Fold:
Amino acid sequence: MSLKAERRSAARPVRETRHRAREVALQMLYQWEVGRVPMADVLRTFWLHAQPDTAQLADELRTFAATLATGVTEAVGTIDPAIVDAAEHWRLERMNVLDRLILRMAIYEFLHESGTPARVIINEALELARTFSGDDSVRFVNGVLDAVRRRLERE
Structure:
């Protein structure tokens, strides 16, 4: 975690929310993407090496994080073309890894979490980008997700 992300995390109270589960899912996806570790292995070992506040996450939130991470890896073949279509003049492999993972996770939620409003999904993605990336990433993620949302006609 960068110094910037640590400061942002320290400024917020520890909370057991779906946002925290999304942060955990992003960390799992990062291990999968960068470490080239099968998601089954990530799920098996993640909690053994997790930070104390992460390790104490409620079972319901652990399940949500695992569902997001697994769902993204299983649906990546459907999700990535949606990103490419919406991110004009950007190749997927040129995108920042964390931005790409945040986009994948949000689009997975658009497609498979119909009970969560699109604006909530986008706001959560923007918060992740603020925490783990930078201002340019926030604008980029917002633009791509808004385009995908419109194409999916998701409210």
